[in-house]
Model the fold of this input.
Amino acid sequence: MIILIGASASGKTEVAKILKSKYGFKKIITTTTRPKRVHEVEDIDYHFVTKENFNKLLIRGSFLEVTSYQENFYGTNKADLKENGIVILEPNGANSFIEILGKSVFVVLIEASKELRKNYMTFRGDSVESISDRIKNDDKRFKKKNILRIDLEIHNKNQPLEDIADDIYKAYQNKQ
Done:
């Protein structure tokens, strides 16, 4: 299983899509209470739920990991785990996976400059206020020291995301 970690607009979601389409990885769909963006599709991008329904799942013990970000909750439902899966997590979620699943997960940190991330967020239509908040919060949250283990570090310098996906796939294959 591959875990992708990266700050907002670092390219991780698009890289995950490439790994899925080109190499047959299966996306592990996480659950969130955040509002759906215009281009997102229910049960493809996320399982979108209310905070009340999220709490019911939490009480039932349905999640392998849970975190909060930008006043919303995110979690990986145990029922959604897949062999040959790929999941996008923030450091706390990744650490839960590492602690529970150990070496069976391959942890990739995708980093990108603030300028590149701002450009991506602007392009996808995020508000100026949201971009500023995300950059500030991500600077604290996505520090390497917050991640228990990183198997591969990628620096997105605006190269084709397919190249990044290929590099991840090769490293993952070598780790197997």
The chain has a mean pLDDT of 94. The chain has two domains: 1-28+83-176, 29-80. The beta strands are 2-6, 26-27, 31-32, 47-48, 63-69, 72-77, 85-89, 106-112, 152-156.
